[in-house]
UniProtKB/TrEMBL annotation, chain A:
The keyword Transport applies. The lineage of its organism: Bacteria, Bacillati, Actinomycetota, Actinomycetes, Streptosporangiales. This is Ribose transport system ATP-binding protein. GO terms for molecular function: ATP binding; ATP hydrolysis activity. Residues 6-242, 254-496 form the ABC transporter domain. Keywords: ATP-binding, Cell membrane, Membrane, Nucleotide-binding, Repeat, Sugar transport, Translocase, Transport. It comes from the Bacteria. InterPro entries: AAA+_ATPase, ABC_carbohydrate_import_ATPase, ABC_transporter-like_ATP-bd, ABC_transporter-like_CS, P-loop_NTPase. The keyword ATP-binding applies. SUPFAM superfamilies: P-loop containing nucleoside triphosphate hydrolases. Pfam families: ABC_tran.
TrEMBL record, chains C, D:
It comes from Streptosporangium becharense. InterPro entries: ABC_transp_permease (IPR001851). Its main location: membrane. One of its GO terms (molecular function) is transmembrane transporter activity. This is Ribose transport system permease protein. GO terms for cellular component: plasma membrane. It is a multi-pass membrane protein. It comes from the Bacteria. The chain crosses the membrane at residues 32-52, 64-81, 87-103, 181-203, 234-258, 270-301, 313-333. Keywords: Cell membrane, Membrane, Transmembrane, Transmembrane helix. It is found in: Cell membrane.
């Protein structure tokens, strides 16, 4: 085999007492796509950040195409070693145009003066490569998240790098967009670029990767050629145990009483939505990005004002003017934007879980920290939130565990109606399975669940019925028996009109 | 009632009142010991804002006295003129028990009373300089009679204006200060019956460009003013600059205080008519000397009037520039 | 605030945790500042004659009281990820309202109450504008700093208000600022201690305090938890305004005197104290003890400089330099502990 | 997974195109402030006697020159998501260094250059501390505001420096601030125009300008693209310091006079102007034209109040209120346009 394009040797990295990477050794080759997999918090992003120069390793060395990296700075890695990174978290200047973002740092032009015309022309070319129909002069802030993600990918392409790292690039893309990205990656691989690819999606990885490396607790626990392994083996290496694809234990009783009924519900981003969800039922909400799913859930929860229609809970008409009122009525909401809307970022794990139990933890108007912590610890234990102690800052947990903490918080109000938006986005297979189990259990206890997700297999696995939205309207509802990915997509895109319920 | 446990400093409930009558002054024994042992005497003059241009001639006087008398004498005080901070610093000095004599000048005659009383109670000789603190426990005042100086300013102005009638715009760097209030009181008295109408006093503040802008905006609305009068060093130069810039030299009369270097130039250029010197160098010098003589030789402490010299274009070369 | 790089605060956020026992003391958010304060105390003891005396410490306590009381209110505002630049002006407003009413012959209690309430109203205005219009509080309070200052000047007509000891009630009133409990402990220090205690209880032991941290960390997340973020913020501004005016009333009582420009620039000292005390400008973290330490730090620094006879111009230099130094040490220490 | 070719987000992508011509002017980031300025001009024309004259406009131009020049530098800092509270002190420093050297008999050109360079050095210090120590610039410049002020006081020993017309070179030097081109256009106004033009070219036409927006918009993104964010920020502080000192030199030339406290509080006016001009405090947005409009707004407001004979206390109130109002209108307008 030829000399590796990327050679990591004995790399270690700690954050305080937390050993994120431990003696990691990894090879990646030009003209190949090497996938890196692992549970949340396994150290994947940390490793990728080191390779991009965003942070230096504590130990070990990195060699790119035979040359050892001496200075861990993105500028150095980009220009000297020609390594580019598409990071897990979108990093863009929202106020600037697509062109300015795509060619940031390599603006073409004479002397200190970039040429706008050139800038826009080159960007247009790059966007064309991505099959992306987008005006280079659009401010990035006006684009939806998926398109923003594509802009970041275009930006890394602009560098014409020899090593391209992608950290969960498809987490926010539609299947169609993902396909286009895969075609492109195929082309890059053909032209001799070394690709490093992080993803939680097993099928995707098996379709794309030449090699698969598994990180577990900061160590490489397995590496294969893709042809030499199976999905089960990879998952086993990731989570350290067999993960059975279990079905939900018990499906909803179609005769169970209706818990919530929407009638012509209208708000910003959706209109005339009529649907119902029964006790013990999981109602999925599918749809393309911007089809109004998030807005619908927020509207029901009282986070945004409704402008029309009615909402009944257990037959009683309700209007929530704020989330506080919804919470009092036993409605819980787990938002999609975990970082901005889910966690209370400066507070501890215990505080994050206990925030809805302050009344119960108070005596004579004064909070008892001990009660709060005790209660939260119990809830964290039940959901298996992996954390060092209750006083640990929530920001120190991996994404999946943050999500579990947020869910634990919402379960503390014993909700009648649980609304979830993208509950497993960016979450590893193990944690996903745990969340599915949890939802199944809650449904069995009679909670009504509405869950929006872009992950169709996930919806098919956990939902009793799936509502499909298109351009803010409810375009159809499929029962578990009739639902397939193809049917959902057909309704979502308008290729097939689903009959109303 | 009900707060018997709370006491005013010095034990009298009438805090800030006429503490002067509080009792006999008794020199602290540590001070008499130090004098006997010929220790270098420590004298502090607390000026209400050392960042004012006017502080520098005072400082010159203090330095002169320190060298001449062989004592450690310095100007202290809060940059920017925060009265709270001035009191803090004085309290700290008193507690520390290392100063042998204090002189204070305040923006407000009342604010320093308690701390002056505290110094007196601690047996530290304390006087006022530049601005008086009447009714306090001070032992003397070194400076000019402020009301009288305001009155003379007005009298001169009346002479200059002759029988023109109209408005006189009065400026002060700190209309809130006691010294400003006193000079203005005198000024009003001096103008009585002259038929001139007073506008102000307008507060300019100490920041030069802001002071200039305030003058400019005030005058924009007082087109028919026949004169401007300043109550101090520093609003005077701002007003003079405006007269010059706006082409009003010779059209609007101007009188004010102190002999800062620019004031001299404006006098010579005919931009302003008259200024009153209060001999600040002497204020610094005499304050230190008064305290040191008292400590060393028991010379009784008594008020010193540093006078009010009327300075015009004719005699400007005969008086020392202040700054 | 500026430098609110939302992506620039991944771990700073994480450290609001509360470890216990010794580690707690060592790892506390305030440890950096506390060590800076200890160093300063040692320097004072070694170099400043007269530093180590009860009398001197009581004096420092009195000197920091007004700044400290204001800092308690501003702590709430800063934890809320907002800022209040108008406290210096509200200080003047409170003092002038009180002074005018006392001079008009009203009972001092009524006058003082009115002064404090004027501060509450000013704070409410700050909060309501910030929340209602959705403008950054930096701008709202930059503007209201000027508005309240102008009002203070207008009310007093630019002249000083001096409380003459002849006016009925003045003797009692001046005890607030000048009195000493049992002839020893300055009343102002007592007020400071009570305010800090009250602030601490509210911040760490009430739901409101909990909500303050939540809102400061992420307004949207807090809202989705059913917290009325607007109400929480407005209340913080009301506290800040009320305490600033209360400090102004104490200032009036202490000096028997106030004028329109009183308290100019005070906001910077107060904010410095809070930040030295470890509160992050982007909100979500900070403690009452930290603020107290920050206030004490500034007071002791001033005291040491005064005792050493440092000239006022050098004091200006030193104060600025030491603020930067204290925060730098704190930042570096915390970075060290983490990695 | 199913791959259905569909372009999923028609509205989002379509609405994003950039408007042109008139609509563009109307939708521009500065439109809110521009309309506020227009309203103010109309009010001035209607209510303020003497407002509509060339002479008056030239005077306003001269009055805003120093603030405007400083605002150009601060615009860079604010777009970088930082803040510079020390410009008022640097203004004094630059003026005092120049004044001292001229009084010492150095050629005025050398003296002025030294003054401006002292500002550059001060700015560099601000930047280096902010970037190097990773402390928010709010704190660094809060501290350095005090440090530079103290230095200005120390250098001048608290006394005013006044340029006597006898000193060689003073006549030429004072032309900078007092001269008029062709006897009509104030030199200061010319300097303002040149500075704004230069600032505009740097901000909108150079790579450095592009990077300024990038660093302010997302430091993470800028870093990832190999941009040395630290360098970009430090340079912005250097510009801010340099221009503040340059304004100080003009101020000295204009008044022939400077003292340690000169420029105190100026930072608030400058920052107000920049923010009224539409720059967001969190960085990443703002334009030179916006800043110019903001500066003009403040200047015209002052002028109208003066011409109407509004007392200086009311002016203080009005200025504050109008700052809030202008930003509120801007915010509301922009919110309206968006939805
Ligand atoms: N800046 C940081 N400070 C402290 N801890 C960190 C930091 N970055 C990462 N960690 C910790 O290091 C570990 C590895 O994190 P990393 O982000 O690399 O995980 P990951 O494998 O990418 O997970 P995910 O699948 O959730 O993206 C986690 O325990 C995480 O909490
Ligand atoms: N802040 C906003 N201002 C204006 N329009 C908005 C805003 N937020 C959402 N919209 C619009 O509302 C519609 C629904 O958006 P929503 O976020 O609910 O979609 P979604 O189906 O949840 O998509 P995703 O899968 O990306 O979360 C879209 O047309 C979107 O452009
Ligand atoms: O006290 C000073 C006064 O005597 C002078 O005339 O002006 C400035 C004042 O500070
Ligand atoms: Mg990751
Ligand atoms: Mg959504």
């Amino acid at each position: 085999m030829a000399e590796p394009a990327v050679l990591v040797e004995g790399a270690g990295k700690s954050f305080g007492a937390n050993r994120a990477l431990d003696d990691v050794t990894l090879h990646a080759y030009a003209g190949e796509l090497s996938a890196v997999m692992g549970e949340n918090g396994a150290g994947k992003s940390t490793l990728m950040k080191i390779l991009a120069g965003l942070q230096p390793p504590d130990q070990g060395r990195v060699v790119i195409h035979g040359e050892q990296v001496r200075r861990f700075e993105p500028a150095e890695l980009l220009t000297r070693h020609r390594v580019a990174l598409v990071p897990q978290e979108l990093a863009l200047c929202r106020e600037r145009t697509v062109a300015e973002n795509v060619l940031l740092g390599t603006e073409p032009g004479r002397g200190p003066f970039p040429s706008r015309a050139l800038l826009e022309r080159r960007t247009a070319e790059l966007l064309a490569e991505l099959d992306l129909d987008l005006d280079p002069r659009t401010p990035v802030g006006r684009l939806d998240l998926a398109t923003q993600q594509l802009v970041v990918i275009a930006r890394s392409l602009a560098r014409r790098c020899r090593v391209l790292i992608l950290d969960e690039p498809t987490a926010m893309l539609t299947p169609a967009e993902s396909e286009r990205l895969f075609t492109l990656l195929g082309r890059l691989r053909g032209s001799g670029v070394a690709l490093l690819y992080v993803s939680h999606r097993i099928p995707e990885v098996f379709a794309l990767a030449d090699r698969i490396h598994v990180l577990r607790d900061g160590r490489i626990t397995a590496s294969w050629r893709t042809t030499e392994t199976t999905p089960d083996e990879v998952v086993g290496a990731m989570v350290g145990r067999e993960l059975a694809e279990e079905e939900r234990g018990r499906w909803a009783d179609p005769a169970a009483p209706v818990l919530a009924r929407m009638d012509g519900l209208t708000g910003r981003g959706f209109a005339g939505v009529s649907a119902e969800v029964r006790r013990g039922e999981v109602l999925g909400v599918a749809g393309l990005p911007d089809s109004g799913r998030t807005e619908l859930l927020r509207g029901v929860f009282g986070a945004d004002p409704l402008t029309g229609g009615s909402l009944r809970i257990e037959g009683k008409a309700v209007t929530f003017r704020s989330p506080a009122e919804a919470i009092r009525a036993g409605v819980a909401y787990v938002p999609a934007e975990r970082r901005q809307q889910g966690i209370l970022p400066t507070m501890s794990v215990a505080d994050n879980i206990g925030v809805l139990q302050l009344g119960r933890a108070s005596r004579f108007g004064l909070l008892s920290r001990r009660r709060l912590a005790g209660d939260a610890a119990e809830r964290a234990r039940r959901l298996r939130v992996k954390h060092a102690s209750g006083v640990q800052g929530i920001g120190e947990l991996s994404g999946g565990n943050q999500q579990k903490a947020v869910i634990a918080r919402w379960l503390s109000i014993d909700p009648r109606l649980l609304l979830l938006d993208e509950p497993t986005r960016g979450i590893d297979v193990g944690a996903k399975a745990e969340i599915y189990d949890l939802l199944g259990g809650l449904a069995a206890d009679g909670v009504a669940i509405v869950m929006s997700s872009s992950d169709l297999p996930e919806l098919l696995r956990v939902c009793d019925r799936i509502a499909v939205m298109r351009e803010g309207r409810l375009a159809g509802v499929l029962s578990r028996e009739e639902a397939t990915e193809e049917k959902i997509m057909a309704i979502a895109t308008g290729v097939a009109g689903g009959e109303d319920r | 009632a009900g707060c018997g446990a709370i006491e005013a400093p010095g034990g009298t409930a009438a805090a800030g009142g006429d503490a002067a009558s509080g009792g006999e002054f008794k020199l602290a024994s540590r001070i008499s010991d130090d004098v006997k042992q010929n220790k270098k005497l420590v004298i502090r003059l607390s000026y209400h804002d050392p960042s004012l241009a006017f502080a520098s001639p005072i400082r010159q006087g203090v330095e002169k006295a320190a060298a001449e008398l062989g004592v450690d004498a310095k100007i202290v005080g809060p940059t920017g003129g925060d009265a709270n901070q001035q009191v803090s610093e004085l309290q700290t000095l008193i507690n520390q028990g290392q100063v042998h004599g204090l002189a204070v000048s305040s923006a407000s005659s009342d604010a320093l009373k308690p701390v002056i009383a505290q110094a007196a109670a601690a047996g530290i000789p304390i006087i006022s300089f530049n601005t008086d603190n009447p009714g306090s426990a001070q032992m003397a005042f070194v400076g000019q009679d402020l009301e009288k100086s305001g009155e003379s300013e007005a009298a001169e102005l009346v002479k200059l204006v002759g029988d023109k009638k109209g408005k006189v715009v009065v400026f002060s760097v700190d209309t809130g200060a006691g010294w400003s209030h006193d000079r203005f009181t005198g000024f009003k008295r001096g103008l009585e019956g002259s038929g001139l109408e007073i506008v102000g006093p307008v507060n300019t503040g100490n920041e030069p460009s802001k002071a200039y802008n305030t003058v400019e905006s005030t005058m924009a609305a007082q087109k028919d003013a026949v004169a401007v009068a300043s109550l101090d060093c520093c609003s005077f130069t701002a007003a003079a600059k405006w007269i010059k810039d706006s082409g009003n030299t010779g059209k609007i009369h101007a009188v004010g205080f102190d002999v800062l270097p620019q004031t001299v130039e404006y006098l010579k250029g005919g931009v302003v008519d008259m200024t009153i010197s209060q001999n600040p160098v002497d204020q610094g010098y005499r304050s230190v000397k008064l305290l040191v003589d008292h400590l060393r030789d028991g010379t009784p402490i008594a008020d010193v009037d540093t006078g009010a010299v009327l300075v015009t274009e004719d005699n400007v070369d005969d008086v020392p520039v202040e700054g | 605030m500026t430098a609110l790089q939302s992506d620039a605060r991944p771990q700073a956020r994480a450290s609001a945790s509360r470890p216990s026992g010794w580690t707690r003391l060592l790892h506390a958010r305030e440890s950096g500042t506390l060590s800076a304060l200890v160093v300063l105390l040692l320097i004072g003891a070694a170099l400043a004659p007269g530093f180590l005396s009860t009398q001197n410490f009581l004096t420092v306590g009195q000197q920091i009281a007004q700044i400290g009381i204001m800092a308690v209110g501003v702590t709430f505002v800063i934890i809320n990820a907002e800022i209040d630049l108008s406290v210096g002006s509200i200080y003047a407003l409170g003092a002038i309202v009180t002074g005018l009413l006392i001079s008009d012959g009203l009972p001092w209690t009524v006058a003082a109450l009115a002064g404090v309430l004027s501060g509450a109203a000013a704070g409410f205005l700050n909060g309501a504008l910030t929340v209602g219009l959705g403008i950054p509080s930096f701008i709202v309070t930059l503007g209201s700093l000027s508005v309240f200052r102008g009002l203070a000047l207008l009310l007093s007509d630019g002249s000083p208000i001096s409380l003459s000891s002849g006016t009925p009630g003045v003797a009692e009133f001046t005890l607030l600022g000048q009195g000493r409990l049992f002839g020893v402990v300055p009343m102002q220090l007592i007020f400071l201690i009570l305010t800090v205690l009250l602030g601490w209880v509210i911040l760490s032991r009430t739901r409101y305090g909990f909500h303050t941290y939540a809102v400061g960390g992420s307004q949207e997340a807090a809202r989705l938890c059913g917290i009325d973020a607007g109400r929480v913020k407005i209340l913080a501004f009301v506290m800040s305004g009320t305490l600033a005016a209360f400090a102004g009333v104490l200032g009036l009582s202490f000096l028997s005197y106030v004028q329109g420009v009183t308290g100019t620039g005070m906001e910077l000292t107060v904010i410095s104290a809070v930040i030295i005390g470890g509160a992050a400008l982007f909100g979500g973290s900070g403690t009452m003890w930290g603020t107290l330490i920050g206030v004490a730090f500034i007071g002791v620094l001033q005291n040491v400089l005064n005792l050493r006879g440092i000239s006022s111009f050098w004091q200006t230099v030193a104060t600025g330099a030491v603020i930067i130094l204290a925060v730098a040490v704190d930042t570096l220490l915390r970075r060290r502990t983490r990695s």
